[in-house]
User: Fold this.
Amino acid sequence: MASRREQKDKLRAEREAREAAAKASTRRRQLIGYGVGGGIALVAVIVVAVLLAGGGSGGSASGDVLPSGGSYAAVEDDVPVAEAARAAGCELRDFRATSREHVADIDQTIEYESKPPTSGRHYQVAAEDGAYDESPKVIQLVHTLEHGRIIIWFKKNLPADQRAALKKYFDDDSYQMVLVPDTTGMKGKVSVTAWNRDPVPNGTGRLLTCPQFNDELFTAIESFKDEHRSRGPEPVP
Assistant:
């Protein structure tokens, strides 16, 4: 049986290959767009738009809520999720998903089993990956979970250095990741969610709730991420 280190290395290699393929595809689409749009003028417009949007991610972090220049404690490799959660004082919970239904009204109110949610009915268009100053609609984020993403939710009133630490952690490995301020009324200072495909057809929601912000928090998030990323019921690169 492969060791946890071997499994992690394999997942990392697969993730990097998918990310490279996605970047190449994006680059090809950009080149085609440049040619159709008439060259240099369109390039300039696109560059300005990217700069205003804050870079290549789908998020909208301006630096006010998620400052740059942060740092975080070194992450320990190959720590089982349950062990890492205990060390950080976090709680792990699972929620059997009951629906994968899409809804057409982005303002529809949906009651979820947990705060933040891990699965369930959701808006038909998923929120994009990225770091956000202002959270997208929760029903969009649930769709993002269905696509195999990991969402890190944080209290907006955390001290600036803690928010900066989360942003630095996100920036170091942002593939299929979302970082958002909480709007659900969660109990922890930081929570992390995922939605796994098993058992079919609806899968299982995963929740890591962390009432403390400490050095061990980042190993807990890392272990959770390694365990659940890219394993959603509706895998999307």
Residues 150 and 225 are 7 Å apart (CA to CA). The chain has a mean pLDDT of 85. Residues 81-228 form one domain. The longest strand covers residues 190-196.
